[in-house]
Design a protein that fits this description.
Blueprint: E1 3-7, E2 13-17, H1 24-30, E3 50-53, H2 58-61, H3 66-72, E4 82-84, E5 97-100
């Protein structure tokens, strides 16, 4: 079970044990992490599960698909590590993953 570290914009940190094979969005929602709204439920159609992958983890989580990249164009504060958490499937190798949450989704 990979351990995922979520960091809020104000510096709070939350560690959650995720289930291998679930999405990052599912892990956040199942553990009550504020800042991942996921209004579309994981359909890559709303960008309310936007997050920032720590630089050290970008290669491990992959690159956005064309659909995800288009949705990321809708976020207010896109950065190099911006991803939709519904599009990242967690693996055992992602143990220790660091994810920042945008202020705009609170």
């Amino acid at each position: 079970m990979p351990l995922v570290n979520f960091f809020t914009h104000d510096g709070a940190q939350y560690e959650v044990e995720a289930i291998t094979g679930q999405t990052l969005m599912e892990a956040a929602r199942e553990n009550g992490i504020d800042g991942i709204l996921a209004e579309c439920g994981g359909g890559c159609s709303c960008a309310t599960c936007h997050c920032y992958i720590d630089d050290a983890w970008i290669a491990m989580t992959g690159t956005p698909s064309a659909d995800e990249d288009g949705m990321l164009d809708c976020v207010l504060d896109r950065e190099a590590g911006s991803r939709l958490s519904c599009q990242i499937t967690l693996t055992e190798e992602m143990d220790g993953l660091k994810v920042r949450l945008p202020e705009s989704q609170l």
